[in-house]
Amino acid sequence: MRRVIRTFFILWISISAFASEPDFGKFDGTAVIVDLNTSTKTIYGKHADERVNPCSTFKILNSMIALECGAVRDENETISWDGVVREYPFWNRNHSMRSAIGVSTVWFYQELARRIGEKKMGEIVRAAEYGNMDTSKSLTDFWLGGGSLKISPIEQTGFLAKLVHNQLPFSLRSQSVAKEIIRLDKRDGVTLSGKTGSCGGIGWFVGFIERYDDTQVFAFQIRGNGANGAEAKKIALEYLKN
């Protein structure tokens, strides 16, 4: 995947507009790309306005809420692994917010949610106007498959646009940290930031590209057999570089 990202940066330097449609292959795919300089919105697929669970893309907002509430001091504070062996070996160790978001460690963000608490979590999600703002179904999984929180691809790009412009109801520090920990690569004047999400047969890859004074926010979503965040990310990177 690092090779794909490097190729993306080499080719994207000369690109000023998106020309071809994404190749979603076997998946039912949707993509929304918004140029923040011109407010031009490009939409592919038929689910741009349909709300589904955000899955682990919610970790972007969860990170800022945790910082605001003091659930952790900063992005480098470590929370000890509880010893429960989970699906992915790289989850089964101590994590900080910086390391956990990179490998989408669910238990870590569930622990942050517990520290934040139901009342404060609900209040801040509503203040951020995130999707349907419904945190009512279980504090530790309302954003996952079958949970109450849902968001559309268009709403994802709206949320990300506010984050890029530091317009969310959080401190500048919290917004800056959130952007920094989802940064995937930066070179030759181009920065790529993004977060995957997988749950309930949905795959997400959301984020933004900054090239000098030009910024695009994007939300790619796929559905179908084998749909997950890694597949959504591959499709998005292939599209964005071509």
Task: Describe what this molecule looks like in 3D.
This protein has 242 residues and is an alpha+beta fold. The protein has one domain (2-241): Beta-lactamase (3-Layer(aba) Sandwich), CATH 3.40.710.10. The protein has 8 helices and 8 strands, in the order αββαββαααααββββα. The chain has helices at residues 2-12, 59-69, 97-102, 106-116, 118-127, 153-164, 172-181, 229-241; strands spanning 28-35, 41-44, 78-79, 95-96, 183-187, 190-199, 202-211, 214-223. The strands form 2 sheets. A 6-stranded antiparallel β-sheet has the order 2-1-8-7-6-5, with helices on both faces. A two-stranded antiparallel ribbon has the order 3-4. A hairpin with a 5-residue loop joins strand 1 (28-35) and strand 2. The protein is globular and about 45 Å long.
Précis, in short:
The protein is of the alpha+beta class.
What is the CATH level 1 assignment? Alpha Beta
Helix tally?
8
Helix-strand category = alpha+beta
Which range does the strand content fall in?
Answer: 15-25%
Give the CA-CA distance, first to last residue: 16 Å
Sheet with the most strands, sense and barrel status: 6 strands, antiparallel
Q: Would you count the extended β strands for me?
A: 8
What's the SSE blueprint?
Elements: H1 2-12, E1 28-35, E2 41-44, H2 59-69, E3 78-79, E4 95-96, H3 97-102, H4 106-116, H5 118-127, H6 153-164, H7 172-181, E5 183-187, E6 190-199, E7 202-211, E8 214-223, H8 229-241
Antiparallel strand pairs: 1-2, 1-8, 3-4, 5-6, 6-7, 7-8
Helix pairs in contact: 1-8, 2-4, 2-7
